[in-house]
Amino acid sequence: MHAPDQKNCEHPGCDLAGEFRAPRSRQQLRDYVWFCLDHVRAYNARWNYYADMDEDAVEEDRRGTAYWHRPTWPLNGGRPPQGIRDPFGFFETEEDEKVRQNSELPDSPYTQALAIMELTPPVTPDAIKRRYKELVKQHHPDANGGDKQAEERLKAINQAYATLTQSNGP
Ligand SMILES: [Zn+2]
């Protein structure tokens, strides 16, 4: 028996509680399907989030160099089960989601990239480009006496810029 508002796992034939969410598609990152743990793992394994990224972007993303500006990003908390990457909060419960929404943390690579670039939607490609040039100038290590942190920020900015220019939107 589940609580009345409890979703069931959407995997055909599975009647466990759907406690774990996954984005329905890359174009619908805000539209979720709900699974039990085993089925969200299977779904997650099939999800090829990196299909459109080049090698460098993938590596940057894996190293998590875009940590700047998101001190409480959920990935820094408990690791998802069995070391599976959890870029979209697959392993969050609905409670976690409520908490996170209340604190208005960026929760997709796109919104996260916007936050890094200190942009608020809606943004135009021109606005992104303009902001990027400003930030590069501002955070370039040469302008900061070779400061290591400036270098890290610049990396995060480059990654955010790539995310925003390669993305179709949130
Ligand atoms: Zn299931």
Question: How do the strands and helices of this protein lay out in sequence?
Answer:
Elements: E1 20-25, E2 28-35, H1 37-46, H2 55-63, H3 94-103, H4 109-116, H5 125-139, H6 148-166
Antiparallel strand pairs: 1-2
Helix pairs in contact: 4-6, 5-6
Offer a quick outline of the entry.
With 170 residues, the protein is mainly alpha-helical. The chain has helices spanning 37-46, 55-63, 94-103, 109-116, 125-139, 148-166, and strands at 20-25, 28-35. It has two domains: 1-47 and 71-105, no CATH class; 53-69 and 106-170, Helix Hairpins (Orthogonal Bundle), CATH 1.10.287.
Name the bound molecules. Answer: zinc ion
- Extract low-pLDDT stretches: 65-81
Q: What characteristic shape results from the CA principal axes?
A: elongated
N/C terminus separation: 36 Å
From the alpha-carbon coordinates, what is the Rg to the nearest angstrom? Answer: 18 Å
Biggest sheet features: 2 strands, antiparallel
Instruction: Please state the oligomeric state of the protein chains shown.
Output: single chain
Q: Which structural class is indicated by helix and strand composition? A: mainly alpha
Nearest-integer average pLDDT: 72
Number of strands: 2
Strand order of the largest sheet: 1-2
SSE topology string: EEHHHHHH
Q: How many structural domains can be distinguished in the coordinates? A: 2
The portion of residues assigned to helices is 40-55%
Tally the helices.
6
